[in-house]
Design brief:
The protein is mainly beta. The chain contains 2 helices and 11 strands.
């Protein structure tokens, strides 16, 4: 009987500790605040502009003697590399919320915050760019850079209707 009592007592103690669970850390909320755009403004936000200084380079692609350098949350720099000894920063494609890009053929694929946008580069040098396709809400909203939880005050239900987070700032 003592073996059964000992086994029952050990089982009870194990069950007791197992039911207590693992203590969890308190939730940490981000100190960043979101930059918002209305859905309507987001869909008109991709524009070709003059060149600007590259401040936060991310991805890089080479296509037809052009170098494309993405800048987190801002857009894509276009560098004319016809003469590799003297590349020229010629323009900037403003794409709010852009953190990634890819090129296939004459199409530049970018994330425009939560949307996937396809930009035709066929006439980049002569007449500019054209957004040929947009897939709304193809991606989740951009998370804060520190990886912490988003405070309730910035949740979709607590901010202006039809707004999208395009960037986080301190």
């Amino acid at each position: 009987m003592t073996k059964i009592s000992l086994l029952a007592s050990c089982s009870f103690i194990i069950l007791l500790f197992a039911s207590m669970g693992v203590p969890t850390d308190p939730v940490q909320y981000t100190d960043y605040r979101p930059i918002l755009l209305s859905r309507e403004s987001l869909e008109r936000s991709i524009i070709l502009q003059g060149s600007r200084e590259i401040k936060s380079p991310a991805k890089i692609y080479y296509k037809d003697k052009y170098i494309f350098i993405s800048e987190n949350f801002k857009g894509v720099h276009v560098i004319d590399n016809q003469d590799p000894t003297s590349p020229k920063n010629i323009s900037f494609i403003s794409v709010p919320g852009c953190v990634d890009m890819a090129i296939k053929g004459n199409a530049l694929y970018v994330d425009n915050a939560t949307d996937l946008a396809v930009i035709d580069l066929e006439h980049l040098k002569t007449s500019g760019i054209k957004v040929t396709k947009r897939v709304s809400d193809a991606f989740p909203e951009v998370a804060p850079p520190d990886g912490y939880q988003i405070p309730d005050k910035y949740s979709k239900s607590n901010r202006p209707a039809n707004t999208v987070i395009v960037e986080w700032v301190k």
